[in-house]
Design brief:
This protein is α+β, with helices and mostly antiparallel strands. The strands form seven sheets. It has a 15-stranded mixed beta sheet that branches. The protein has a six-stranded mixed beta sheet with strand order 18-19-26-25-21-22, with no helix packed on it. A six-stranded mixed beta sheet has the order 29-30-37-36-32-33, with no helix packed on it. β36 and β37 form a beta hairpin. α3 packs antiparallel against α6 and α4 packs antiparallel against α5. The radius of gyration is 37 Å and the shape is globular. It starts with a helix and ends in a 7-residue tail after the last strand.
Length: 804
């Protein structure tokens, strides 16, 4: 067991240079876009918060919140641009849908792309420090990468996600369970297929050396070409990886440290990586996925740029170890069994659908038959009634005189019966008045004595299974525990609680009692970040309804920090399974400084697919969002992103608190301005900081910020808020702006990106010129009237037919 632990630690040491942070800090600009570098075939774009789709075109800029859909037999090459040589690149194959969830470059370069379906190839170069982030999300999993060349695909039928690392390293987490240590690490040449049913703890069992046959069968020609084009970057990263393996191999000289890989294994891995691209191309030719002549022409072009030439005639097949072969066969059998199960399920569903259709058809036939029989019966009854009426009219004489009856006994005609007399209405009796009772005087209640307060306050809400929970720093002093937050991830329920003690408190006693369903309890002390040690176990025991007391074990508070954390984990027996709970207790000494209560960002989403709405930062404490018309049928969910979890969040709309859900704070918008306050409290609820979020909902811009003109262009388009499109000729080298707004609007600043740098216009109230180089240029206006601010983007483009 100890050797296995050391082996895992050494593997992590290999991955840390890529998964961990870097020393250098980035000083790049504050905006980031995805530019369509190449487009073959057709693709459509839906702008952030909008519902209208329009045709995409080469050189078009895509911003945060935009959705790109690549059509059939089409492909798109995207360049995530900061205007530097470290731009990331992504190739999206046919039938791929991407949402650019996050594109920013404030503290670090952050790129988050969500893929609903399709396949993408990514070359990531933007990771230069610990605050940089590149994340790819599928319906089942999330991959964070570091300087990596990788392929990700989503099966449009099964929804299964496929991750394949060609060079670098990536960490795959189950969606909703992201966090350090929760995912699995993929190294060069490894792949993993994931579906919704797999638990995060099973991920390691499903990764292995890539199966090239399966990979190529689901990969397009555009992706194969992109992999070949990335050969230089792939070779460089894999050489660095092999060098790290050799360095780790030298650790075998350290006493008691097992050799993780011998030289023969390292040589085998090196050979496999050097032949990986060649084997992918040969398999693609074998499966007729690519044109052999065209792909060889591309290889000839690439070979002029790389040191290690790609020679298909001398490509060695991948050499798998016995364990890798066994694992590959096992996973293949699993996939085939799953495929058969899916086909059987599909067939069953088709049969059920057919049975349903046959049943509906029979029911319809029966209804038609019943309807016809009913009509036939009604027609027969009508005819019979007409005949009887006719016979009755022929047999009935003239009306006899009054008082006539039977005329003799000779069987004369029978007179019509006399109508029944109408009964005389009985008079309604006058209601007897109800006597008014004399009111009996209410007795004066005897004052009941006020109950003595409980000496041991408990949390506002105790989770299931906990019946008592108190903290004391002396026999007479009790700390009240306030519930802070809760979330559910898989079968684990997470709760956060907080309490405040005096600055002088150094330790606490804790008592907890549990219901008889609880069978196991463990208490851990959480160390500070960066200490490099796991949480120490304070207490662990099996119980059955008995109280657990820590009075013999003092909870010592961190002397150097204002906060100390403890985790209390326990499980509850159910009839057929166990439920697991994790309680985090944060103890705050004294009041929190308001400078520590920081909100980094705020995210707004809507609809079943949780589309993001573009949220812009106006100042340190002010944010702005435009809600499109399609949000009318959905609630919005506001989710603040905090600098740390040492705060309590309160979200307020029109002086009313909003309901808290696992998705965020639910809000129902009205037309016009919706002003939301995001208030951060310290645990003592005595200090707070307010952040203002203004959400505009309407078909046009707010009237107080009405626009007469941004400038003189060939054509001017008003699109979905907050973006406007201004069109210039393809020969244009500049765009002339003469902004005209409603009376009282003050232009605070106007800025644009040029060669990766933010440029601020010196006098934006006067006409000014923006240089133009043929690519879409975004010019951002920051405006104010009264105490309200707003941001407008003007996108200067050359292609009016694609956005009109």
């Amino acid at each position: 067991m100890r050797k296995m632990t050391i082996r895992l630690m050494v593997l992590l040491l290999i991955a840390l240079p890529l998964l961990g942070g870097f020393a250098n800090k980035s000083s790049a600009a504050t905006s980031r876009v995805a530019i369509i570098k190449e487009l073959k075939g057709k693709a459509t774009v839906k702008k952030a918060g909008g519902t209208k789709e329009f045709t995409a075109f080469a050189k078009m800029s895509l911003n945060e919140g935009d959705i790109l859909a690549v059509g059939a037999e089409s492909s798109a090459v995207l360049q995530f641009s900061n205007g530097t040589s470290t731009d990331d690149q992504m190739t999206a194959s046919e039938n791929t849908t991407l949402t650019f969830s996050k594109l920013s470059n404030s503290k670090g370069t952050v790129t988050k792309v969500s893929m609903l379906k399709g396949t993408v190839w990514s070359t990531v170069k933007s990771i230069t420090n610990s605050e940089d982030e590149f994340t790819l999300e599928t319906p089942t999993a999330i991959m964070g990468v570091r300087g990596t060349n990788l392929l990700i695909g989503v099966d449009p039928v099964t929804g299964e996600s496929r991750f394949f690392i060609v060079s670098g390293v990536g960490n795959v987490d189950k969606k909703g369970e992201e966090g350090p240590g929760n995912g699995t690490i993929l190294f060069p040449g490894q792949s993993i297929n994931l579906d919704q049913e797999l638990e995060a703890g099973e991920y390691d069992d499903h990764k292995n050396i890539v199966n090239l046959g399966d990979l190529v069968s689901s990969t397009s020609n555009a992706i194969i070409e992109a992999i070949i084009a990335s050969k230089a970057a792939i070779d460089k990263e894999n050489e660095e990886y092999i060098a790290r393996l050799k360095e780790q191999n030298e650790l075998s000289n350290v006493p008691n440290l097992p050799n993780i890989l011998n030289q023969a294994e390292i040589d085998r891995i090196k050979q496999n990586l050097e032949n990986l691209i060649g084997n992918i191309v040969k398999e693609a030719i074998k499966q007729n996925k690519v044109d052999e002549t065209a792909i060889k022409d591309l290889i000839d072009q690439i070979n002029k740029q790389v040191n290690k030439k790609l020679d298909l005639d001398n490509v060695k097949p991948l050499e798998l170890s016995a364990q890798e072969k066994e694992k590959q066969a096992e996973l293949k059998a699993l996939q085939e069994a799953k495929k058969k199960q899916q086909e059987a399920e599909k067939k069953k569903q088709e049969e059920l659908q057919k049975q349903k259709e046959d049943l509906l058809k029979k029911l319809q036939e029966q209804l038609e038959k019943q309807k016809a029989e009913k009509q036939k019966a009604e027609e027969a009854a009508r005819k019979k009634a007409e005949e009887q009426l006719k016979l009755g009219q022929e047999a009935t004489p003239s009306t006899p005189p009054s008082g006539s009856g039977n005329s003799g006994s000779g069987g004369g005609p029978v007179s019509s019966p006399s109508p029944e007399p109408s009964p005389s209405p009985s008079p309604s009796p006058s209601p007897s008045p109800e006597p008014s009772p004399s009111p009996s005087p209410e007795p004066s209640p005897s004052p009941s004595p006020e109950p003595s307060p409980s000496p041991e306050p408990i949390p506002e809400e105790l989770p299931e299974g906990v019946t008592n929970w108190t903290l004391t720093d002396s026999p007479q002093s009790y700390a009240i525990i306030n519930k802070k937050d809760e979330k559910i991830v898989a079968d684990m329920l997470y709760y956060q609680y907080a309490t405040v003690v005096s600055d002088s408190t150094t330790s606490l006693f804790m008592d907890m009692s549990f219901s008889d369903k609880v069978n196991h309890v463990a208490v851990y002390g959480v160390r500070g970040e960066g200490e490099g040690e796991s949480s120490p176990l304070i207490l662990e025991k099996d119980i059955s309804g008995a109280p657990i007391s820590l009075s013999d074990h003092l909870i010592k508070l961190n002397e150097l920090e204002r906060y100390t954390r403890f985790n209390i984990n326990y499980s509850i027996d159910e009839i057929d399974h166990e439920k697991y709970y994790s309680l985090t207790l944060i103890i705050q000494k004294g009041q929190l400084d308001v400078e520590s209560m920081i909100m980094n960002d705020v995210e707004i989403k809507y609809s079943e697919d949780m589309y993001s709405i573009d949220t812009r930062k106006l100042s340190e404490n002010e944010y702005l969002a435009f809600a499109g018309r399609e949000t009318s049928e959905y609630d919005l969910y506001v989710k603040p992103t905090l600098d740390n979890d040492f705060t309590i969040v309160e979200v307020i709309l029109l002086s009313e608190g909003l309901s808290k859900t696992t998705l965020g704070y639910r809000i129902e918008l009205r037309e016009g301005w919706n002003d939301v306050t995001i208030r951060l409290w310290d645990f003592s609820k005595k200090n707070h900081v307010d952040y203002k979020l203004s959400i505009w909902k309407g078909d046009a811009e707010p009237p107080e910020f009405a626009i007469s003109s941004f400038g003189a262009f060939d054509r001017f388009f008003i699109k979905e808020l907050p973006s406007w499109f201004a069109v210039v000729t393809e020969e244009a080298t500049a765009a002339n702006f003469t902004p005209i707004f409603a009376e009282g609007v003050e232009i605070l600043t106007v800025e644009y990106m040029n060669d990766g740098q933010t440029v601020e216009v010196s006098n934006p109230s006067e006409p000014f010129v923006i240089p133009f180089n043929g690519s879409d240029r975004v010019v951002t206006f920051f405006l104010q009237t009264g105490d309200r601010k707003i941001i407008y983007d003007v996108i200067v483009t050359t292609t009016p037919t694609n956005i009109g």
